[in-house]
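Entry:
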Amino acid sequence: MRKWLVVALVVPLGSTVRPAGAYGRTWHVNAAGTGDAPSIAAALDSCSAGDSVLVAAGNYQIDSHLLIDERITLVSEAGAEATVLGRAGAPVLIMIGNDSVLEGFTLESIYISEGASFGSGGRISNNILRGTGDPYEFGMIFWLYEGMTISGNCIYSYGSGIALQESSGFIFVHNTITACGTALSLDGTYPWNTIRNNLVVGNDYGINLSGGVVGEVSCNNVFGNSIANYLQGTDPTGTNGNISVDPQFCAVDPPGSGNFFLQSDSPCAPGNHPDGAPCGLIGASPVGCRDVSVERTSWGAIKSIYR
């Protein structure tokens, strides 16, 4: 029986990425439709386990759900900022099969949500997920799923950034989540999940630990979430490298500009942890500017633009 998981799209930062599938065929797709398949959907439909779909830079309109079947890799050639998937009309899902990969895209109001339960494995990394501010819109949602790695993603302007229900073995690392209703929610989950080196700032709620014991929660910066930084569970701020301080973005309005780079003196930059913890980079984006001496807009004012 095949098992599925649904995934939402958002924002990555990275240099050129390469296919991660092992030993299979690589299907090339471009915006002109002159590659090995005329569209991303057609390439995915043609894949066998172990194949990769390598997508050239460009803007692509997606008008139906995409299924990344078991052990298939969907990856961009030039990274998220250069490879944009937008929906043509009704909401679009990206569904991921066991041990599949989604890497290097900007997803505009496309969401990743679980298509079926009891799936396992896979990776969603270096993507930018950009929502519309709809309070009912999800970036990603998973139910009864195991062993997914979610890393290096920028997720913003969703009703819920990432929601996890009764799932285990997830690794959330080096993500930036902002301007959402709830950034990250673990509901009824098991204790073997890892939340590490994430930047959660300027949401209504930061991290919801309603599942109780989570596993490792370390080196996160959860700051300026208007109702609560942590909801339910134990607030770990001040322990295991977890902090709650202004991340000092380069941009005054990161969601508006799509610029989540850090100032050189940011507490989220490697070597700048205020407690001296050896956390390295916190969040998805590295240092991109020197100290910026400008008046900052409050997170409440910024969020009011997108809500």
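The chain is about 5% helix and 35% strand.
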